[in-house]
Predict the 3D structure of the following.
Amino acid sequence: MSRFLPRRAAGLALSALSLLMALGAALAPAPAAAQAETPIKFVLDWKLQGVHAWYYLAQDRGYFAREKLAVTIDQGEGSAATVTKTMAGAYQAGFGDVNAIVQNAAAKPGQAPVMVYMLYNRAPFALIAKADGPIRTPRDLQGRTVGTPAGGAAARMFPVIAARTGIDAAKVAWTNVAPNLQEQLLLKGHVDAAAVFSVTSYMNLVAQGIDPDKDIRWFHYGDYGVELYGNGVMVSQQLLRERPEAVAGLVRAINHAVRDTIADPDAAIAALVKREPLLNKDLEKRRLLYTLKTVMLMPEVTTQGLGDVSDARFARGFLQLKEAFDLPRVPTAAEVFDRRFLPPLAERTVAKR
């Protein structure tokens, strides 16, 4: 039997070597590409619309994955609700209203989320009236009835626009209406005007067979001295504190997708419709283009780039919010907006349109 021992010993040695190699492979660090991604739950401001297309384009083109982020996107229930959901810890990031952040930061210092990328260069608050009606200037609202959802932000900000246009606010009557009936009640004459979120109302009118550019008269708050910004990307205090590299990656990915969307809106809308095939892609593209034109690509953006704010204007807007909402204090800009994560200006620049 002795002549078989060397072969047996060799076999045992080979088995031992294989086992050691397997153990070594199991214990070795995973390659960088295979390391765990940071999970981020992201909530939108509303149901899927054209203004959300860049988030899904970022997913489809691998921009989140490239930053080692696993982003889950959920539909929302309002711009202000994004803030409360992020504060509650249900989400680490979201798309919502910076003015709601200001209000929460004023009342609960250190708890409100922080905006890290501004998308709506001006708040999409507006008053609308029928073009063939008697309301031709904001002052014509005196003695008229304006419809608004209960607690609507556009209605809450009305005293600011009233003070800047000479309206006697006491002579304007308000009536609460369901958000989905605002335009319908205006068209049927049940109210003389409505206080709306323009990027939503515009397409609601289109869906009812109305040409919002010809049949409706628009009074955008931003044209009458209201200096507020609007929606953007916010993150929780915890994510900001514990995973700043994830915040920077999130901002880079979204900025890349926003620029792609501006260059090729059809590609972005295609990414959106993949998630909700029942959406009318032509209507949502029109909503997207309207939003780019009226609240995003403002003159200020051509100089300071996408995602940023003017500090001086930001501060003036805080004072307007204090006036409208009787805030207990005025937060500092640093409590509300953090520009440290913005890509270089060259990567955020857009051409004049």
